[in-house]
What does this fold into?
Amino acid sequence: MSLHEEKRGEFSLKGVGASPGIAIGKACIVGQKRVKIKRKTLSENKIESEQKRFKDAVENVHAYLDSLINKMPEQIKDHAGILRSHIQLLKDKLLFDNTLNRIEKEKVNAEWALKESLQDVKVLFEQVDDSYLRERIEDVEYVVNRILAELTHSQGLALNTLKEPVVVIAHELSPADTIQLDQEKVLGFATDVGSRTSHAAILARSLGIPAVVGLEDVTDEIAQGELVILDGITGKVIADPDKDTLEKYREKQQCYLRYRLDVIHKSHLPAETLDGLRIQVKANIELLEEIPLVLSNGAEGVGLLRTEYLYLSQKGLPDEDKLFQSYRQIAEKLAPHPVTIRTLDIGGDKFVSNISLDEELNPALGLRAIRLLLREPELFRTQLRAILRASAYGNVRILFPLISGRHEILKAKEMLHRAMQELRNERLAFDPAIKVGIMIEVPTAIMVADSLAKEVDFFSLGTNDLIQYSLAIDRINEHVAHLYEPLHPGVLRMIHMAVEAAHDNRIEAAICGEMAGEPMYVPILVGLGLDEFSMNAIDIPRVKRIIRQITHEECTELAQNVLKASSSHEVREMLMNFLHDRLSSEFDPAFGLKPDFDGGKICPIS
Ligand code: PEP
Ligand code: MG
It folds into this structure.
């Protein structure tokens, strides 16, 4: 949402901080203008030439994208897949064939026909439930806009023609645009559209360029050449700042740079407490493209590969080979580091149109994750075979989601062993000693954790769901979001029980819920005895840095105290005292991150 704070002279716009950092410089508005498309009726003899005009425009965009792939800097070569997918989209039936047909049948100009075809695709995408996939409509829109720009000759100022360092302001930046960003010339960028998960945002984080997206009308509000401050931490863009603001942000910029340098410089150091306890810090990922960031941020592998993406991103179910190729690539890229592949966690808030699920009144408590897999053995078998085959190419572990009791593990393991036997018979390679773990995210699993631990090689605590199910708070319902309490003593006691059961049975206890990446919670989680933390890659350097500044002993003492607390409020108070005494510089507001002593969340300064 764009919030315009009225104060002419200096004024600010609020968007989404997509890549952290502060940029201060002259605004340079680039890229295509929003083109107004008008419908024109063609005479019969113009149809063929109009279709050719459209095909030529598509060919030109194709050639342009090809040339970009060839020129891609080494550092971001892994992102070439995005451009290749755009090339594929250019010839997608829904866009290409439909536009040609429309030109012929409706006797309309190419621009109009293409715009109408885009509308049809949008309608299809809107029916998709998965937010990541829904956002991929951005890719389709980008491709359409590129073709439109070709057709209307309105490419605008190109990013590779920048003469001096500037803050780039654009309606949107496509991956192709972002790939061309010259780090010497682009101090940061701000766009009208986009989200934290759009490709431009992901690329900006890989390149370390500060970015704010989703500002809605930044291209209209900011003038060419105007001085702007862009704060990628808070998502704020300030135009024409006054002297005090400028000074404040110059200071914040220096602090942030010093902080980042220090964090990045040390992100490859092991996460070891001052008294020598070594903790594994890993990343949660969904896509191959995230791996460069995972490795550069110092992850020691992937603790959670969510596998829903391939099931959500195509028509029909992915076959074994497609899954195998994808898992194999990820395993190879990460080797010798481990990758923990979680079997499909579909259902609940994540739906796939290809798997017909009955409409459920209460999907979070419905046919979800392992329950669905056990009811659909073919679906499960295909995925198990793909994971096993990938295990021959790297260090692969397997993780079953939403386990509520021992019977589910036994059934899942039986399926796994059957898949192993099949592969043996077919002489296909796999790792016979593959480690098998379960997500601990249902309260009953904690109550019987002791017997579950005897059946598996590791636990991974899914606190996102554990909190939802134990506090009876729907994790996607904003009306009860304030009741979602990671620091509830009940939640902390459950984590503690699961860890104890794991350790009593000599297996590892990991945590992969969002809680793991929250710097403020680190001392408690270390004190509760967790062996592995897995989180969004962006959070890794900071979490590791905190682990290196604390002792296991003091964290254990803190954990013992919070386990005795009777309310989240009490826990928070104990934690705040600890952070104050022991980590005050880490939560210094000067770094743009401070503990909020009321809400208990670290929030950026505004
Ligand atoms: C969790 O529940 O904490 C978890 C990591 O899994 P997801 O968020 O995918 O349900
Ligand atoms: Mg979960």
Observations:
- The longest strand covers residues 22-29.
- The mean pLDDT is 86.
- The pocket of magnesium ion (ligand 2) is lined by residues 441, 462, 464-465 (CB under 6 Å).
